Amino acid sequence: MPHPSQTDPAAHPDNRIGAEPPRTRAWQDGKVVAEGFPVVELSEHLRRGEVVWVDVCAPAEHELRVLAGELNLDPVAVEDAVSPRERAKLDRYHDYFFLNLYVPHVDDGALSLHEISAFVTERAVVTIRQDRALGIDALIERWDDGPELDRPELAGNTVAVLLYGLLDLVVDRQLDAAQAFDDEADELEGLLFDENASLRGVQQRSFRFRKDLARLRRITLPMREVLNTLLRRDMGFVPQALIPYYQDVYDHTLRASEWTDSLRELITNVMDSRIAMQGNQLNEVMKKVTSWAAVIAVPTAVTGFYGQNVPYPGHDTHWGFLVSTTIIALCSVGLYVAFKKRNWL
């Protein structure tokens, strides 16, 4: 069953924008008064004094012309909204601002980033997702289940409440990703002293972990600047009653960025420890191999110096040559197997 906020493509065939039908919703005094209406009716709801939310998924630049015309959006901001891999940021325009954020997801130790942009005006919030993997239902549930819209002192600040829900969701997902990487770091630490662990496998996981952690850090660090800008008094966007909520998101942002920094130091220490352990292991192997070589070198030197070459069973015969060759091959294979079992080769 489609969500009520999703517009009906059969009833409004000209309303399709992007990879799926847009989602729309309107609030009056903090209460939902309409949803699932076509985007062309956006200006009508705004004239009624309602707060409007529109969500589109993976639109082309020309498909946003209706929204750009309704909200008087700058072409540069529209281009940023549809361009993938824009950095996380907040840009201020004349009567609105543009946000670009990333929602991380960690699956089996692998990090994927889902980009979401938002235009925030005085009475409208437009979210633009770059792919379908970022489900918007979680954001709607947060708005519906959160007590903020039901509080009378916040009913007139619906846009700020909606943006708070979006930022809170994004930062919570970033904290979840940091927690997943923390668990991955614990596993890597456990493998560090596991003699049965594959050295190549541990190295591959470590390098992938470090690369993904750097990507996570690139999207968490700018969130501090975003929240700082929104909380500035000259912005006048966050009302006094909502400052504790935004401050809480800011604290979570600090925690996420500090967590990623500590994990970077941890994985660096793990990799350095692994290299040091490899060096120590190599020294042990060289010590043992050198000792055996010294033991074998003494009789070899004595017999070679005196030229001792006595007849042995099968001397000057074909079968004697085959026997000696077989002994050499078996001893070589035996030494190879013994060294391999001890991880000397």
UniProtKB/TrEMBL annotation:
First and last residue of the signal peptide: none
Cell inner membrane listed as a keyword: no
Any Pfam family hit: CorA
CC per GO annotation: plasma membrane
Gene that this sequence comes from: corA_1
Family the entry assigns: Belongs to the CorA metal ion transporter (MIT) (TC 1.A.35) family.
Protein name: Cobalt/magnesium transport protein CorA
Span list, region Disordered: 1-23
Keyword Lipid metabolism carried by entry: no
Matching InterPro entries: CorA_cytoplasmic_dom, CorA_TM1_TM2, MgTranspt_CorA/ZnTranspt_ZntB
Family matches, as PANTHER family: CORA FAMILY METAL ION TRANSPORTER (EUROFUNG)
Originating species: Actinomadura macrotermitis
Gene Ontology terms for molecular function: cobalt ion binding; cobalt ion transmembrane transporter activity; magnesium ion binding; magnesium ion transmembrane transporter activity
Segments crossing the lipid bilayer: 289-307, 319-339
Bilayer topology: Multi-pass membrane protein
Biased composition (Basic and acidic residues): 11-23
Record key words, sorted: Cell membrane, Membrane, Transmembrane, Transmembrane helix, Transport
Subcellular location: Cell membrane
